[in-house]
């Protein structure tokens, strides 16, 4: 009973803090996915451009950030970024340490990692588009901007949904590493609760259950989005021209 009281929502319970931490984890992951989507789209465009320099830069980005340990990237962004901001502050006459906000640094780090994976997802989705659709769009007089808006974007998003679901799950788990910055996300809150109460098994199991709930709900959302996207015919976008 004492263990259940610790997980309650009263004055002595940690339940509310764990729920808030789970919401913080979702917020960090969603922000990171948005950052990664922008970076991934740019890198995918570079790798598909055919320009040797852009292709090489895109390959370097995806190779480095998929190959370097995630925790190292978080350290580099958080501690390295804080050192850089402090140096800039000293150059402007400010004395003292300037640290990057934990949320911003964590979301940026996970977003950069996510961008490397999303770049490959978007590139593969673009290559999956039927060349006949693009040729037919050109034949009926669609200009480049309309083809991009009516054909490429809808089809890329349609083919990318399964891969983006995997990247979301990866980012959701990577968000646990942001605990090293002190952000009160789910892993950090579970650690603090376990250390404060000496109920390590209880709170790490509770944290694991919350992660499973988040991943299970995410799976249902992405599976639903994939089913809905697959209801339409691949050429539906052309029919709207």
From TrEMBL:
Concerning InterPro entries, the annotation shows: AA_ABC_transptr_permease_3TM, ABC_transp_permease_HisMQ, MetI-like, MetI-like_sf
Q: Does the keyword Membrane apply?
A: yes
Q: Can you tell me where the transmembrane regions are? A: 14-42, 54-78, 98-117, 200-222
Localization recorded for this chain is: Cell inner membrane; Cell membrane
Q: Which Pfam families match?
A: BPD_transp_1
Q: Which superkingdom, per the lineage?
A: Bacteria
Start and end residues of each ABC transmembrane type-1 domain = 18-222
Recorded GO CC terms: ATP-binding cassette (ABC) transporter complex
Instruction: Please provide, alphabetically and separated by semicolons, the GO molecular function terms listed in this UniProt record.
Output: transmembrane transporter activity
In terms of Gene3D superfamilies, this protein maps to: MetI-like
Indicate where this protein is primarily found. Answer: membrane
Matching entries from PANTHER family are given as:
ARGININE ABC TRANSPORTER PERMEASE PROTEIN ARTQ, CATIONIC AMINO ACID TRANSPORTER, MEMBRANE COMPONENT
The protein, known as: ABC transporter permease
Query: What is the species of this protein?
Result: Rhizobium sophoriradicis
**Upper taxonomic classification of the species?**
Bacteria, Pseudomonadati, Pseudomonadota, Alphaproteobacteria, Hyphomicrobiales
């Amino acid at each position: 009973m004492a263990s259940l009281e610790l997980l309650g929502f009263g004055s002595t319970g940690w339940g509310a803090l764990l729920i808030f931490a789970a919401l913080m984890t979702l917020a960090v992951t969603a922000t990171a996915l948005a950052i990664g989507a922008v970076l991934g789209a740019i890198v995918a465009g570079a790798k598909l451009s055919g320009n040797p320099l852009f292709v090489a830069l895109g390959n370097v980005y995806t190779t480095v950030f998929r190959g370097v340990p995630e925790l190292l990237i978080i350290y580099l962004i958080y501690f390295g970024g804080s050192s850089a901001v402090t140096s800039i502050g000293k150059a402007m006459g400010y004395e003292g340490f300037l640290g990057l906000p934990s949320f911003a640094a964590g979301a940026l780090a996970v977003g950069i990692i996510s961008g490397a994976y999303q770049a490959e997802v978007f590139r593969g989705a673009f290559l999956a588009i039927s060349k006949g659709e693009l040729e037919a769009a050109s034949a009926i007089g669609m200009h480049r901007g309309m083809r991009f808006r009516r054909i490429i974007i809808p089809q890329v998003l349609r083919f990318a949904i399964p891969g983006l679901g995997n990247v979301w799950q990866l980012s959701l788990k990577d968000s646990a590493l942001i605990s090293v910055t002190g952000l009160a996300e789910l892993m950090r809150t579970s650690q603090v609760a376990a250390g404060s109460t000496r109920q390590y098994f209880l709170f790490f199991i509770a944290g694991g259950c919350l992660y499973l709930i988040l991943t299970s709900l995410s799976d249902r959302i992405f599976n639903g989005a994939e089913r809905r996207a697959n209801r339409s015919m691949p050429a539906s976008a052309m029919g709207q021209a």
